[in-house]
Amino acid sequence: MNTEVTIAGVTFKNPVMTASGTFGSGMEYSDFVDLNRLGAVVTKGVANVPWPGNPVPRVTEVYGGMLNAIGLQNPGVEVFVERDLAFLADYDTKVIVNVCGKSVEDYLEVVERLSDEKVDMLEINVSCPNVKEGAIAFGQNKDALYDITSKIKAKAKQPIIMKLSPNVTSISEMAKAAEAAGADAISLINTITGMKIDIYKRQFALANKTGGMSGPAIKPVAVRMVYEASHAVNIPVIGMGGIQNAVDAIEFIMAGATAVAVGAMNFHDPYTTVKVVEGIEEYMTKYGVEEINDIRGIV
How far apart are CA 200 and CA 196, in angstroms? Predict the structure, then answer.
């Protein structure tokens, strides 16, 4: 039984990753999860300078998931390198750093700063719906996506994954734009923009009014978009959105994903990632699947 997958020349021991923003850099979860069991740890978004994030309240529960308007709060790349990357260096797992910014120059500054660090891949977040100062434009306009992808690819020492927004008319067109600009892989979906109103307080549940919805309720949308994107491009697709267990993960793989990422469920059950790894192994053993790649895109 072989669970290894390869993306842009990087080989992962299994296809299970963490979704950016739901796992920190693994420090908070290392008491519960053996990080060595994961294919990769995908870090929370990192910017060139510290970001305070949005005002509170910025997280609320909704039917079938949650809304968040964290606003990509992070300590900046220098603290991240000294603290987070140093921590992850002790584990036998691949490290994918999620990069965010408010301008092309912001992204490039982080990408260049990480060029000589022990980082296996970069995931470029162009799709967070909470950032008002430009980032959403990159993920919702194919020309802007092509422009930033090509500029980052020209500077990056590591392979780049473009994390696509579901808040678009055609995910296939966005996937093609990223591929044409030189992306080594794409990941999807990021959160779907949503809103909740507290009828008793007669006000928005989030200070930001809107937030990104994640959790089990978005999974059918995510599976459909992964299927469409994987048929539109020839580069690997990393699928995410509402994965609760191995059954969900395998569904994404059968839709065309090379790897999968677990997000909101980390908050509900911090053991989820390893449970998904073990469940995939059990499925492969039970149904005689020798290579995980044998079931990729089979529908």
Answer: 12
Burial per residue of 103-126, b for 16 or more beta-carbon CB atoms within 10 angstroms, e otherwise: eeebbbbbbebbeeeebbbbbbbb
Cα of 124 vs its chain's centroid, Å: 9
User: Is 128 a residue of the active site?
Assistant: yes
Which helix H or strand E contains 253, and what residues bound it?
Answer: helix 246-255
- Helix segments in 156-241, DSSP class H: 171-180, 219-232
Tell the CATH topology of 5-55+70-193+213-295.
TIM Barrel (3.20.20)
What span, in angstroms and rounded, lies between the C-alpha atoms of 23 and 13?
19
d(CA 182, CA 157): 13
Task: Give me the catalytic one of 97, 128, 262, 289.
Answer: 128
Domain ranges of the chain: 5-55+70-193+213-295
Q: What is the pTM of this model?
A: 0.96
pLDDT in tens, 28-62: 999 999 999 999 999 999 999 999 999 999 999 99
* Strand stretches in 47-116, DSSP E: 59-62, 65-68, 94-99
